[in-house]
Amino acid sequence: MADAAKGSERTVTGGCQCGAIRYSVGVALPPAYACHCGECKKQSASAFSMSIPMYFDMLDVTGSPKVYESKAFSGRPKYNFFCGDCGTRLWHSGTNPPTAITLKVGTLDQGADIAPVEHLWVSQKQAGIMLDPKTVQHQTQPDDVIAWRKKLEQ
After folding, report:
1. Low-confidence ranges of the chain (pLDDT < 70)
2. Which phi and psi angles does 88 have, rounded to 5°?
3. How crowded is residue 110: how many other Cβ atoms within 10 Å of its Cβ?
4. Which end of the chain, N or C, is more open, meaning fewer C-beta atoms within 10 Å of its C-beta?
5. Which CATH architecture describes the domain 2-153?
6. Nearest residue to 22 via CA among 76, 74, 73, 83
7. pLDDT digits over 22-67, tens only?
């Protein structure tokens, strides 16, 4: 997985906790980022969430995820795709059907070597979580999130 995180092309796989939804990615994974906002902490039931910005058509998905619509920080709709059996969040998108997505790193079968290259919403970081000082840290989020995600994908 470390190779995939650094840009070499090989198939990586993932899915939900119960196995009802599976996916594979046969192209290099873009870099991951961590978000420390309240919504990400709630949806991950943890101190932060790690995501990989990419395009849905990069995934080969088996199974049929359910979708929950919420509002993004911008006020626009956000579609949260998850397993209807076990509840695992798989990816988020600003559109339904999904186009540009943020794939949840925790759903990868082999994701332990993926480290975030940037951190969002550090102002809401959980106490006791130490961040690598070499990573880019945003107190909130970039003003133009779409441009920022495109920059990460390159």
Report:
1. 1-9, 73, 154
2. -65, 125
3. 13
4. C
5. Alpha-Beta Complex (3.90)
6. 83
7. 999 988 899 999 988 878 887 887 888 899 999 999 999 999 999 9
